[in-house]
Backbone:
């Protein structure tokens, strides 16, 4: 009887193992951006050789990324005003880094403010909702921040004044687990920087 219980338990474990492995989801590929093949690091400190980011870091002196020269300053060396552009937060559709036409007026307001204050710099922080792998969300957050940077460059802002960071899913604006919360978490936030 013990052999029967053991074999039944073993069969159940094998069945559960097979079922669990059949449900595994392969993570989406990490997107690598143009003009980074020689640097090893992106403008926000991500190591593109293995696709793994170092969250919230910045490495000055990186290669150009779409829209002009990459920023060569460290945002942490500046006074950060998070309230200046709080109303200009740009929101994104699911799994997208495309800036919607309805959000362009926010970028125009940020560009106007930067053009009127030559000493100001900007930090763009790309964020995602909790769905997707951590690596995928870091990459998507970076694409969102770089897309806003490129849009600001087309609006006349020197891209060398703009640093980017990706936080992926690490900093939700709303901790909920539904579409209402997720739509608030898919965003770019703009931080105004002034010399200390």
Residues:
């Amino acid at each position: 009887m013990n052999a029967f219980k053991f074999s039944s338990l073993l069969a159940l474990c094998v069945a559960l193992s097979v079922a669990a492995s059949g449900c595994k989801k392969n993570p989406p590929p990490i997107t690598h951006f143009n003009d980074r093949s020689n640097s090893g690091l992106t403008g926000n400190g991500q190591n593109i050789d293995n696709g793994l980011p170092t969250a919230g870091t910045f490495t000055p002196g990186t290669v150009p990324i779409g829209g002009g020269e990459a920023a060569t300053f460290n945002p942490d060396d500046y006074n950060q005003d998070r309230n200046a552009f709080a109303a200009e937060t740009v929101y994104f559709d699911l799994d997208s880094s495309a800036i919607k036409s309805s959000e362009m007026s926010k970028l125009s307001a940020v560009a106007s403010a930067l053009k009127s204050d030559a000493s100001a710099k900007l930090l763009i922080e790309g964020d995602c909702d909790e769905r997707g792998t951590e690596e995928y969300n870091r990459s998507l957050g970076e694409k969102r921040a770089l897309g806003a940077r490129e849009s600001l460059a087309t609006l006349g802002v020197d891209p060398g004044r703009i640093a980017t960071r990706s936080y992926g899913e690490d900093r939700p604006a709303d901790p909920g687990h539904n579409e209402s919360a997720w739509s608030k978490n898919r965003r770019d936030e703009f931080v105004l920087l002034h010399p200390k």
Q: What stands out?
A: Helices lie at 2-22, 104-116, 134-154, 179-185. Residues 35-195 form a domain with the 60s Ribosomal Protein L30; Chain: A; fold (CATH 3.30.1330.60).
